[in-house]
Structures are given as structure tokens and as C-alpha cells.
Amino acid sequence: MQTPVLRKGVVALLASASLLLTACSSDDGPAAGEGASSPPASATSAPPASASPSADLPPAKGSVEVVKTLTDGLASPWGLAALPGGDLLVSSRDEATITLVDGESGEKTLLGSVPGVAAAGEGGLLGLAVAPTYGADHLIYAYFTTESDNRVARLQYDEKKPAGQQLGAPDTILRGIPKGAVHNGGRIAFGPDRMLYVGTGETGDTGLAQDKASPSGKILRMTPDGEPVHGNPEADSLVYSYGHRNVQGLAWDSGKRLWASEFGQDTWDELNLIEPGKNYGWPDVEGRKGEAGFVDPVAQWKTSEASPSGIAYAEGSVWMTGLRGERLWRIPLSGKADGEPLAAPQAFLEGKYGRLRTVLAAGGDKLWLVTSNTDGRGSAKPGDDRILLLKVR
Fold first, then answer.
1. Beta bridge partners of 273
2. What is the DSSP secondary structure assignment for residue 216, as one 8-state letter?
3. Of 45, 182, 163, 39, which Cα lies nearest the Cα of 109?
4. How are beta strands 317-322 and 108-113 bridged, if at all?
5. Segment 305-309 mean pLDDT
6. What is the mean pLDDT of the chain?
7. Comparing C-alpha atoms, which of 100, 226, 232, 79 is closest to residue 154?
8. Neighbours of 354 (CB within 10 A)
9. What is the reported pLDDT for 56?
10. pLDDT confidence band for 28 (50 / 70 / 90)
11. Three-class SS of residue 360?
12. Is the pLDDT score of 54 beyond 90?
């Protein structure tokens, strides 16, 4: 299915200029996010952004223990998604492949490549998500860059076929998202409402973030077929929130509130609590400004300390990976409606594993963590890139 990007009847949008900003923490800054998962629910309305998490509050100070390296030798890994049985799917941004990783042994099996991917700059095969109906249809969703645009497609995984030939042809559900050398967004995740959420970037064309007729610089919400969802802020529109520079992480807390990480330019990176229809400020505002009409971030970091990518929710906290910052941030949540953290963010693994790209909840107090040192911006060491299993508190 080839669904119009924002409103039915609107023609494909013009591709954004591939402007590379010189002072930019985009995909990481001068130094050198899927994956989020959540329990499915049957509702089709938007998750209540003001609901408070029901779990007990986390401690002010946490801890991180690296339990093991599940697998290594990955090339430019970007997206990560978990299958119902516990195995993992990982995408290679530059090689345009999807690999199955055994969740116990770490054994890798190439499923196949995604045709049409044009990897360049920050574009390529990016986020992955597993359909809530995977048990019945074996559908995998992917966000990727082509020669002309960014798009979302679904592919069927057939484990009975030979290795390397187990992916069906892409069925594009959304096309026409402008592409650029930078700020292609790329994180996708199914929410508690079983709808698909897509984080996009403004491709370096800053005005697109405030243009609600453009899918760039937005969080989009759609059905699994790529259609606008009843209950979105505007009828027949995929736009869920706007004013974003480059959304890299999506995750829901225990109260079904949506959180998103995004790159700032040269001052502040952000963690935002997302509410439908709200304006998150870019390019008029970067970081906390307290200006009317814009939503301030819940937490902010200097770009040298973060350049955030994927996020996940576990043990009462949001966990956020840092690319340029080369660390894992823990943001303990208080449950307050405004998202105010319980305590100041806390950093772990600083510099130990290099750049960190994606984090995924693995159940209970466990997280999967993906490094990102083989994408041309990191300093690759023997064994890079790898998936680590963490125990967190």
C-alpha cells in the first residue's frame, strides 16, 4: 500500500535540501535511535499522555551491570527489535541488511537485504519494529532512506527459506518523507495502542519542523497500514507532534506516556514528554526557554555529553544512549504529570564501549544495548559493534 504522507490527496512532498549543518550534534556531532517496545493493547485511541506511571518510584540513584556480550562483529548496527520468542533483529544502516541474533547464544543469521536502500550520510536502513500481530503474519517494519526519500515498509519474515533469502519484498506503507545528508530521523515503534509511531528529522531544512503539512521534524502516528489514526490531533493527518529537529528515540513508560529523545544543534540535546498536537519548538527554541506556545524538554544535556539516540523504559526510569557522549543516561521518573524527573540524570559506562546507538527493554531489570563504532564516526575496536545485556536499577 502506498499511503499519502499526511493528508489524503496531497501529492508527494518535495525532498528536503541535503544541507549539512556545520555546528550540529546531528547523528552525533563532530566527535565521531527501534527501537522501543511496549506491551500491546487493543485500544486505537492515543495513549493518555497525562497518565502517571503506576509502578513504584525508582530510587534516586541507579546502577548498571554489564551481564554479557550477546554478540559482536556487527557492521553499522542501527535498529533493534525483539521477536516474541526473545530473539533479536538488528539492522545494518550501511549494508541494508537485517540479521537475526539468537537471544541466548548470540548466533547470527542473515535474513536478507532490504532492496532500494541508499545509504549515505546519516541515511540508510534505520529503525525496525515487529508488528503486534507478528504471531499471525510475521511482519517486520523498517524505516529506510532511498535515492529520493525516506519511507516505512513492512516485510514478511519466512524462517523456512534459506538464510539470506528470508525477507519478502518490501510493502511500502509510507513514502515521501524528505531525505537529507543529515537529520533523517528513523526510529519507529508500536505503541501500547498498537499503532505505529515514526520519528523523523527536518533534514537540515529547519523550516520543515514547524510546517504541519510536512512529515519532517515530526512524530507521526499511523495504523499498521500507514493510515491516519482516529484521534490524531488533526483529521486525516499523521502528525502527532511537531517542532522536532531530529527524533532518535521513542519509548513508553508504565503509564503509557510517550517519551522521545532528539538532537539539539550546538547547545542542548533533549528528552521530551510527548503530548498530541504540541509544538516542541525547533527551530525557534532549543532547550528550555519557557516560551509560550512551545513545550520545554523534561531534561537537557550539552551536546558533548549526549547526542542522544535510542531510549527505553525499565525499572521506573528512561534510559537514553549517547553517541558523541559515549554513555548511557538514566532519567528516573517521578510520575508527575509534567514529567519532572525524580532526580538528576545519571551517566553510566562513560567511554567504556564508545558510541551507544540503541537500547531496548529486555523485560524486568534487563536492557539490550547496541554500540555504534563502525559507522564512520566512531573509533572501532576489535569486536565492534556489539550487543550487550545489561542489568539495571
1. 259
2. T
3. 163
4. unpaired
5. 97
6. 90
7. 226
8. 21
9. 81
10. low
11. strand
12. no
Helix (H) / strand (E) element for 385: namely none
Q: What are phi and psi of 305, to 5 degrees?
A: -100, -10
Confidence of residue 17 (pLDDT cuts 50, 70, 90): very low
Q: Rounded distance, CA 106 to CA 88, Å?
A: 9
Cα 205 vs. chain centroid, distance in angstroms? 20
Answer whether residue 185 shows pLDDT above 50: yes
- What's the CA gap between 163 and 113, in Å, rounded? 11
What backbone torsions phi and psi does residue 151 show, to the nearest 5 degrees? Answer: -150, 165
pTM, whole model, 2 decimals?
A: 0.90
> Strands 196-199 and 188-190: what pairing?
antiparallel
Tally of residues, the chain: 393
Query: Which amino acid is located at 211 in the chain?
Result: D
* pLDDT of 47: 54
Q: Which of 393, 392, 391 is nearest to 68 (CA)?
A: 391
> b/e map of 68-86 (b: 16 or more CB within 10 Å)?
eebbbebebbbbbbbbeee
Q: Can you tell me whether residue 35 is helix, strand or coil?
A: coil
